Amino acid sequence: HRFGFSQKEVEEAFETSARGGNAIKELFNPKPGDIFVCSFPKSGTTWLKALTFAIINRRGHDSSSNNPLLFKNPHECVFGLWVEHFDKIHQSGRVPLISTHAPYHSLPKSVLSLGSDHCKIVYICRDAKDTFVSTFFFVEKRRIKKDEAISLEQGFELFCQGKSWFGPIWDHILGYWKASLEQPNKVMFLKYEDIKKDSYFHVKKLAEFMGYSFSPQEEQAGIVQKIIDMCSFENLSGLEVNKIGKVVNPVNGYQVSSQDFFRKGKVGDWTNYLTPEMAERLDRIMEQKFRGSGLTFSTS
Ligand code: A3P
């Protein structure tokens, strides 16, 4: 049993990823300029998709009515990397963004071997305690068979054992962290908490990394702040499209209500759900796994 799925779902997911994962790894070729938006689930994917999309798409869409983010969920603006989508990913007119929750070493071989001039990767991660709490509520809210529900304590145990979506969270984070140290021009490593703290600095840095720097004129016109405001939790979660719509996974057909991607959008919500002992346990695991890597998280 893995945290987040029933046994049947786990089997189906493994089957799909074994089939699709191998094909993705072997066959997918990015186009020059493609940017991969990568994350461990519930770490801020929706936010990063909105920001990267808004950065690339900003010209001609800085005002209201013609901005796709106002009438589409961010997950419909940035395509996931599914085998079934290979032909659609590069269709003309699409922004060159491709998203995946795959661990670094499971990315397509081509993506791993090509240089930063061909494709780039932006990764977002988040304090594991908040990621856990966010996952727990996401899963429990969507669970159809209520008799398969697990308690927060059971979920926490599985999470601490590394039995979660896409493997242990620490391996996922470390994979991208190390890659960002080895190839800083190709892999950008972001923390949810840092973007919250200083959105302006990080959104500018993100745009620069992606090759879509803001010009002094754009800055003067307040475009950076407009993008930050448009992609904020408060704005996106309040949009009609994100309150009523559904996002359909093209592979397994699972539907997620758009509003389920938006819960609280806060740093440190774990304090409302985890005991000090639980928090200390997970912090200790993360510290131990990250030791020597140079990666730290503020544990407040
Ligand atoms: P919470 O459950 O803590 O509220 P993902 O997008 O990877 O699925 O992660 C979902 C988490 O990001 C949820 O966290 C959600 O509320 C939060 N989130 C969604 N959109 C956001 C935004 N625009 N800004 C900040 N956080 C956002």
From TrEMBL:
<comment type="similarity">
    <text>Belongs to the zinc-containing alcohol dehydrogenase family.</text>
</comment>
<protein>
    <recommendedName>
        <fullName>Enoyl reductase (ER) domain-containing protein</fullName>
    </recommendedName>
</protein>
